Amino acid sequence: MISSLNRKNALSLALAAATVAAALWAYASHRRAARPAEPVPVQDGKTIDFSGGSPAVKDDAASKAAMDSALKQIDEASRTVTFSGEPTPTK
Prior knowledge:
With 91 residues, the protein is mainly α. It contains two helices and two strands. A two-stranded antiparallel sheet has the order 1-2. The radius of gyration is 29 Å and the shape is elongated.
């Protein structure tokens, strides 16, 4: 009876140790993968592409055309926007 009790304790201890080891490994590998990307300086007229998982500065014709189109859309949309100098009344 004593040998079976020791065997159960040993198995429980081994299972607990394996669970703790797996939890520590998962925590350590997650922190390793979640490191922030290297900073990329913003350059006028160029785009920063994050689609590959890391930042890459692009300066091609397609990126310039997309940026020009977006800036025209922003200018057109904001042309009629005005803000009054009076605060919004509260009830």
